[in-house]
From TrEMBL, chain A:
Keywords: Cell inner membrane, Cell membrane, Membrane, Transmembrane, Transmembrane helix, Transport. SUPFAM superfamilies: MetI-like. It comes from Streptomyces phyllanthi. Its main location: membrane. Residues 1-14 have a biased composition (Polar residues). InterPro entries: MetI-like, MetI-like_sf. This is Iron ABC transporter permease.
TrEMBL record, chain B:
It comes from Streptomyces phyllanthi. PROSITE patterns: ABC_TRANSPORTER_1 (PS00211), ABC_TRANSPORTER_2 (PS50893). This is ABC transporter ATP-binding protein. GO terms for cellular component: ATP-binding cassette (ABC) transporter complex. Keywords: ATP-binding, Nucleotide-binding, Transport. Residues 21-255 form the ABC transporter domain.
């Protein structure tokens, strides 16, 4: 009887005894790996290596002693870490506030709150900073005009305010997902055993969510210390490492010094970034033994109103800032001379700004599909096809966010500004700087791609992990090659992730600034660097006009991507189930 | 709706005011964009203290909604719930003396087994000693000794289930509620847990309401089964009663397997109703609604109550075997008769000795185990 033998040890059954034979990878897959690896190497690894090589060259070594004995430099380091910590705390708190209101409170207007909370994602980097100066600065329309105070917004307080508002959507989305994923039956079980709403919150929801607060904190920390745009506009004499490195390159032409600052900035960035990844990947302590059951019981008592009011206040601040951007782009000097004018918008879309708008659009249009595709391919290779080397590719793909943009930009300058000669052959022409080929366009597109890959990669990895391999195995089994399977089975199924990935990539390209400001040349103008020069010379109307146009372009891009990619079935399904829940 | 069969109430006697639950025309309407749906329609039910009642029905029949209204997670649209004679409709779930065992167990993942079990007792502000005593008893009686410091995710499905039950028991609820608690376990474990739950429930004598769609589970555990369909109670009776004398075609069909043979009731007498079925006159028990001469009456015949015997002369039998299926302990035959195709379950024999397809057979029905009911 063969049926009774199943328990008698694995050695008797051949399919268990034989180790799974490693299939020789398909030629197409190998080609893909090579192409992706080359792109990541040129776009991220080489610049990073260039920075490290300069920073650890013999003449750079004394600079570390200088750095760690100079009070000025140490203050810069301390400033950076303080800024990261405060933005991490405030941004996470703000994200939690919005997520909690969204997921747990029985209050009106939650859909609008959701949209408001997501607005900073598509907004250009200087919009909030500039609007903050106009509204809440020393001569601010609200701070001075309404409350009559002369508040000095420049410095740490202004930076924390602006960066928290700009970066919190990431925390919000993550925490919202987590709160929604809590099995409502847990809450019902607690209530059922006599726990009041407050006790449910204290003994159940907060302890379960607490570990989840770490990841957004770390992520915001990384983003905050990497940010260059806001310190330039709003920092005042509060100097941070990113700004210091930028100044070393552009003001002091001290490339070695810049590289040293970069390395010192890289240490906490990479440490926090990889701590965050580790934290997210650790085994989640939840028991999912059946389908989640029960329904969410939103908080209905009076206690919801103070929390709601707090969220409304934050939403009002966000709205006031974006309102200022739009109104400011259409008034002579918003707050002082509120005459309606289309001069600034005209300058942007029909005057000197056209060049920047068209260049930016073109570069982003080239970079977005490339970044989206590369991100997707990396995700697919990582999740399905590479086992031992997967982490390396995954790592390479994420360098675009893990490495601060300023560092990457300086890396580009170091690696690609000089012409590279191999013997008499002009091997690599200069890609960066005044004499670069195509006016530096190649470097800019490359920077866009590298900075945008992680967005698509992250969503695709998440989506692919959920897709059961059997579905792809069924396709392979029917005779499809891995690439055919990818194109005909996998791609259609993860279309929603592709849509999100492309949208994020486009938004990131269009709004990217910290790498780009180091790469623009007189021949190529980019909107974000135009905003920077307008904002730092006090021409707020022009800055606002650029921001308005940029936001409009990003939203139009979203719509176009949606039409081109099509909305996936899964997205619609989610929408329906959401509706049924409410 | 029939009253509880008293001889089957196995729970020990308890005082009159401990866990007597009454549902009085309980109704739940959901209003969605496609109009109003009545999920639970005037359900009335009396649950005796210590009784184990099962709500059974297909998905969407309203059984879970009924349970959730009892627990307080859903508000009723009309009707009321009374516990020991007091209406509890407006009382929030945390103040109802009930404890639920969830389908997903809903163990708190950030607490150990012991913390999970102690959770409800801590909320009741019981003393440390009291908690420790109850804990020891719960852990021992649920075979959880040695697992107290484990995390829920380190437990097997059956162990998680027992923790969930222990956690519900220690708060000393007046009513225990079960929401399909065994549907995530494999078949063997499910059988063991059925017996375990029933043992514990009898030991503590707690009134219990158990929701399931598994008729076998309902039959083997309950004092009484409440069969629900489309929000209404089709029948509430002891398992044996439900099986032998289903109140409707739906119940007969949902519980076990049944053949329905069209039959015209000819005479209603003291010993039963006389009908002619498959050319033979039988006197059978009938549902009270059946009247003489009524149309749309059916004789319900369970497959295992029918016997077949082969006849040698072609054309003389009452039916022809269409198909036979070997199941091990039993053999199923599908037999074409003048009253339609019926299913017959015979005790298993060697499949080679089974009646061949095309065999002419005589069909004999057992009038004692047949039941006459009407279609509506």
């Amino acid at each position: 009887m063969t049926t009774t033998l199943t328990d008698s040890g694995p050695s008797t059954s051949p399919e268990v005894a034989a180790p799974p034979r490693r299939r020789r990878s398909d030629l197409g897959v190998r080609g893909l790996i090579a192409a992706v690896a080359v792109l990541v190497a040129i776009g991220a690894v080489v610049p990073l290596v260039a920075v490290l090589a300069t920073a650890f060259s013999p003449d750079a070594l004394p600079r570390y002693t200088e750095f760690f004995t100079s009070w000025v430099d140490l203050a810069v380091l301390r400033n950076t870490l303080v800024l990261g910590t405060l933005v991490g705390l405030c941004g996470t708190a703000l994200g939690f506030l919005f997520a909690f209101v969204q997921a747990r409170l029985d209050v009106p207007g939650k859909k609008i709150l959701h949209v408001i909370a997501l607005m900073p994602i598509v907004s250009p980097p200087f919009a909030i900073a500039t609007a903050t100066v106009v509204l809440y600065g020393r001569r601010g329309v609200i701070s001075n005009g309404v409350f009559g105070v002369e508040y000095d917004i420049y410095g740490l307080d202004g930076l924390v305010f602006v960066l928290s508002l700009s970066l919190f959507p990431v925390a919000y989305l993550g925490l919202l997902g987590m709160l929604r994923a809590l099995d409502p039956a847990l809450e019902e079980a607690a209530m059922n055993m006599g726990a009041s709403r407050w006790q449910v919150l204290r003994t159940l929801i907060l302890p379960l969510v607490a570990p989840g607060l770490v990841a957004p904190f770390l992520l915001l920390f990384v983003e905050a210390i990497a940010d260059l745009a806001n310190p330039l506009v709003l920092g005042g004499d509060y100097t941070v490492l990113a700004g210091r490195a930028y100044l070393a390159v552009t003001g002091e032409y001290d490339v070695t010094g810049a590289a040293v600052y970069c390395v010192i900035l890289l240490v906490p960035s990479l440490a926090m970034y990889f701590a965050q990844r580790r934290w997210m990947n650790r085994k989640v302590r939840t028991t999912i033994t059946g389908r989640p059951s029960g329904s969410v019981h939103p908080i209905t008592g009076w206690a919801r109103w103070p929390v709601y009011a707090l969220a409304l206040l934050a939403a009002a601040v966000i709205l006031s800032l974006y309102g200022t951007v739009i109104v400011g782009s259409m008034t002579r000097v918003f707050g002082i001379d509120n005459t309606f004018t289309l001069d600034y918008l005209e300058e942007v879309v029909a005057g000197v700004g056209v060049e920047a708008v068209l260049d930016t659009l073109m570069f982003a249009a080239i970079a977005t599909p490339v970044a989206g595709l590369v991100g997707l391919v990396i995700a697919w290779l990582v999740v399905r096809h590479l086992d031992r080397t997967a982490w390396l590719l995954d790592l390479g793909g994420t360098l675009g966010v893990a490495v601060p943009g300023t560092v990457l930009g300086i890396g580009f300058v170091l690696a690609y500004r000089p012409d590279r000669w191999i013997g008499p052959v002009h091997a690599i022409p200069s890609l960066v700087g005044g004499s670069a080929i195509a006016g530096g366009a190649v470097a800019i597109v490359l920077a866009y791609v590298v900075r945008s890959i992680p967005a698509g990669q992250r969503t695709a990895v998440a989506s692919l992990t959920q897709l059961h391999p059997y579905i792809e195995q069924a396709s392979t089994d029917l005779g499809a090659s891995p690439l055919q399977t990818f194109r005909r089975v996998t791609l259609p199924l993860i279309r929603p992730a592709l849509l999100t990935g492309l949208s994020y990539s486009f938004a990131r390209s269009m709004t990217s600034v910290s790498t780009i400001v180091l790469l623009v040349t007189p021949q190529t103008k980019i909107i974000t660097s135009q905003v920077l020069s307008a904002a730092s010379t006090g021409r707020y109307g022009v800055a606002f006009a650029y921001c308005t146009v940029l936001t409009a372009l990003v939203l139009a891009g979203f719509a176009l991507i949606r039409v081109l990619v099509g909305t996936g079935a899964a997205l619609q399904r989610t929408a329906t189930s959401e509706r049924q829940k409410s | 709706m029939t009253a509880a069969a008293p001889e089957l109430t196995t729970a020990p006697p308890r005082e009159a005011d401990s866990g007597h639950l009454r549902l009085d025309a309980l109704t739940k309407r959901f209003t969605g964009r496609s109009g109003t749906v009545t999920a639970v329609d005037r359900v009335s039910l009396d649950v005796e203290p210590g009784e184990f009642i099962t709500l059974l029905g297909p998905s969407g029949c309203g059984k879970t909604t009924t349970l959730r209204m009892v627990a307080g997670f859903e508000d009723s649209s009309s009707g009321s719930i009374l516990l020991d004679g007091r209406a509890i409709d407006g009382i929030p779930p945390q103040r109802r003396p009930m404890a639920m065992v969830f389908q997903s167990y809903a163990l708190f993942p950030h607490m150990t087994v012991a913390e999970n079990i102690a959770y409800g007792m801590r909320l009741q502000r019981r003393t440390r000693d009291d908690i420790a005593t109850s804990m020891r008893m719960a852990v021992t009686s649920m075979n959880l000794v040695g697992l107290e410091d484990r995390s829920p995710h380190e437990l097997s499905g059956g162990q998680q289930q027992r923790v969930a039950l222990a956690r519900a028991l220690v708060v000393q609820p007046k009513v225990l509620l079960f929401d399909e608690p065994l549907s995530n376990l494999d078949a063997k474990l499910r059988d063991a847990m059925r017996a375990e739950i029933r043992r514990i429930q009898k030991m503590f004598g707690i009134t219990s309401i158990y929701v399931t769609h598994d008729q076998d589970e309902a039959m083997s555990m309950s004092d009484r089964i409440v069969v629900m369909n489309k929000g209404r109670v089709e029948q509430a009776a002891a398992p044996g009663e439900i099986y032998a004398r289903p109140a409707s075609v739906f119940v007969a069909d949902f519980i076990g397997r049944a053949n329905f043979l069209e039959a015209v009731p000819e005479r209603v007498g003291g010993s039963g109703v006389t009908v002619t079925v498959l050319g033979r006159q039988l006197t059978v028990a009938a549902h009270p609604k059946v009247t003489a001469g009524a149309t749309g009456a059916y004789l319900m015949v369970r497959p295992e109550t029918v016997r077949l015997s082969a006849v040698t002369d072609a054309g003389t039998g009452m039916g022809v075997v269409l198909r036979s299926t070997f199941h091990g302990p039993t053999i199923d035959y599908e037999v074409e008769t003048t009253g339609g195709t019926i299913t017959v379950t015979e005790p298993g024999v060697d499949p080679r000795e089974a009646l061949a397809e095309g065999t002419n057979v005589d069909v004999s029905l057992d009038p004692e185990r047949a039941y006459l009911l009407t279609q509506d």
